[in-house]
Amino acid sequence: MKHIDEKAIDEEIKWAKINEDVLRHMETPRKAYWIALATSFIMFLVGLTAEVYQYRYGLGVADLNRSHMWGLYIATFIFWVGASHAGTLLSAFLHIIHAEWRRTIYRFAEAMTSVALMTAAIFPMIHLGRVWNLYWVVPYVSDREIWSNFRSPLVWDAFAITTYLTCSLTFLYVGMIPDLAICRDNARGWRKKLYVVLSVGWQGTDRQWRNFRKTYMTMACFLLPLAISVHSVVSSDFAVSLMPGWHVTSFPPYFVAGALYSGCAGIMTLFIIMRYFFRLEDYMTVNIMEKLCKMTFAIAMVWTYLILAEFAAVWYGHNQADKEVLLAKFYGPFAPYFWAMMFLAVVLPFTLAFQRLRRNMAALMVLSILFNIGMWLERWMIVSPTLSHAYNPESWNMLWPSIVQWCIVFGSLGWFGMIFLVFCKIFPMVSMYEVKEMVFHQKKDLLGHKHGHSHAGSGHVVGKPSVEGA
Amino acid sequence: MSITNLINDWSRYRKGAEEGGFHEYEHQWAMVVDLNKCIGCNACSVACYAENNLPVVGETRFAKNQGMHWMRVERFWDEPDLQPYVATASNSLDAWIEGNPPAPRSALKPSNPAPIAEGMLERDGKGFNEQFGFHGTKSEYQDFGGSFLPMMCQQCHSATCEPVCPVAATYHTPDGLNAQVYNRCIGSRYCSNNCPYRLRFFNFWSYYEDAWPEPLHMQLNPDLTVRDKGVMEKCTFCVHRIRVVKDEARMENRKVKDGEFATACVQSCPTSALVFGDKMDPDSQVAKLWNAHQVKQGPYKQTKENKELRGYRILEGLNTDPSVMYLERVREV
Question: Is the CB of residue B7 less than 8 Å away from at least one CB of chain A?
């Protein structure tokens, strides 16, 4: 096997070039960026039209029925909440354990977290019968002393998602302040005004760096358990219920693993897209992609174990209703989707075991999208078969979602793409100061390797803020 | 639940937390459905439509399972080897009433072949299915051997729909009813997903726009609202009738008498298969039937020593503690 350079990034890259490259991506992306933005906008319009139609005529247009009160909306809701998890994993968890390679890609992963959550949050609204009364879910003080029902997982959902959205947006913003200062120093026109406000007077002094580090680390430590709790809460929408196939104890870890899995696959897709759109090949390198693939593979295996454990628990638990739901997935009307899910999300990740594939961007683009289709099917296979095959046989029926549901699901992709792409254009999607640190550390490590460890006593500056002039 | 209430009644809430369930019922409205008597005529369902302003949703929407029948008669076809129920001297209702319960089922032997004679249902050389335009398979539309299960909201005492509603639009009343507050409902539909009986109905459309064209809107019951789209609804045990009777009783300073009123379905049942009443009143017919069949209110599945007692509650094993008792249909095995 030919030797592959394991370096995450070329350490000879100049700091000025980093600034220049990153600032350029916000000004002049490739033409594909504009095509993608336009496509997203059209998709969003399709979804919006469907939603307006549904708002006018009621949820009947979604072809939901007495047994299938939930459908693709809730499945897609879980999908997007799941997609939001990997960003936190990359930025917070890998920050805490000092994984250097995360530094070039965590910014857009975090942006994906926030935007995916915004996408997820619209689904509970879309699916409500009377969305104009949504605020009743929030426990606000009123004269009539009516509160929301704190026993309901949907209320927990509302808390969890708003908390997570607030925190991840704050985390994203705080981590961006040093970069916003660089943008401020180089921008003109409306951008200048925006960055002046957003960079809150960052000058890169020692004190500012110290406070910044502490804040960032504290927030990372807070965000990590929060992210895990959020998807656990989403899973309790199902686990708390009584229905066969939903009333499963292992759902919280299973959902969290699934969330990280689909999120990592989503990051792989966006990695390739961003790299191409914004000409960031020097930063989002193949070596980093390879590490990301390995992480995805590991998480996919954890998730696979949990899904098989769930089947085993149902099978040996020998509860007739649970078992029938499982069998309905295995060879009932849902079998094609179920087995497609098993192939795409369980079998296909094994291809990541091959290094040649891990370094092939075109193949990874296709693979990561297939993983996500598999994971989306998995969420659908959680929601629908149970509703089809619940306890009362009189109400057993099969539901094929109507065109309105499909349009809204499609439109949510457009909504995500639209916000995400606009966000990329306004904010630096590669963390300039962290890349500089990364280059600095890598160079130092190489020097240390060359000269033995002679400098370790004297010029040891690891962990100290190293980019003051940034 | 207001904060003031919570503080004032802390001990009461503690008791509820320790012992589970609600203990201070004024009434426990309950029902008994005798499946021996049910002939599947759907009169109860029709009465419910008329009483509760239920919209007739039309063929297309009904086919999509969006019907609004709070009271429905579920039909299940028999297994092919089961024989149709035929009243005989030993298992007739009269025998029960006279105190001669039928012989234990274990003692019954398989009866003669089906009593429907060869060609009895044929006309002009056509079979039953052909005559009535049923083009399904034989197993789908059999000539005989169905059983009926009238299903209305089971008014569970530990209802699965109640804890999951995000805005507490469905809650338990001191009457032992599972109430649905239309004005509070935001239509998250979690309650329906969590109902093992699938007895909650959602207004998928603005039915009032077309369900009652001009003169028909005169038939709407003024005691109830007409629900708009986006609201969940279900059988209320005709709560508006309960309210009227309770108010009258209070004005006259007396208790509600058994049989003073009945729900629409009970009132219209031609065979008196449905019995409605207050289970807290020991003299009521309902309480007597529950006692006779040794079914107790309580969250757990009850096993009875005497296998001949017919009382059971649907999906009792899920610990939903329903208020509707069914009396098993007796037939020769």
Answer: no
Quick one: closest CA in B to A383, which residue?
Answer: B193
pLDDT digits (tens, 9 = 90+) for B195-234: 999 999 999 999 888 889 889 889 899 999 999 999 999 9
Q: Beta-carbon neighbour count of residue B140 at 10 Å? A: 10
Residue B196: other Cβ atoms inside 10 A: 24
Task: Spell out the domain ranges in chain B.
Answer: 24-101+139-155+237-327
Nearest Cα to A141, choosing from B298, B177, B30, B2? B2
Annotation: CATH topology of B24-101+139-155+237-327? Alpha-Beta Plaits (3.30.70)
Q: How many pairs of residues across A and B have Cβ atoms under 8 Å apart? A: 149
d(CA A213, CA A209): 6
Q: Do A393 and B149 touch (CB under 8 A)?
A: no
Domain ranges of chain A: 15-293+402-451
The answer to whether B181 contacts chain A (CB < 8 Å) is no
Which tops the pLDDT comparison, A215 or B5? A215
Contact A289, A361 (CB under 8 A): yes
Query: For residue B282, what are the contacts with CB-CB under 8 A and spacing of at least 6?
Result: none
Q: Give B16's contacts in chain A (Cβ within 8 Å).
A: none
Residues in chain A with CB shorter than 8 Å from the CB of B203 are 58, 129
Distances (CA, A) of A365 to A84, A368, B106: 19, 5, 67
Residue of A394, A397, A402, A403 to mutate, testing the B interface (most B Cβ within 10 Å of its Cβ)? A394
What ipTM describes this predicted complex?
A: 0.86
Instruction: Write the CB contacts of B320 (distance below 8 Å, at least 6 apart in sequence).
Output: A242, B154, B156, B157, B158, B159, B160, B196, B299
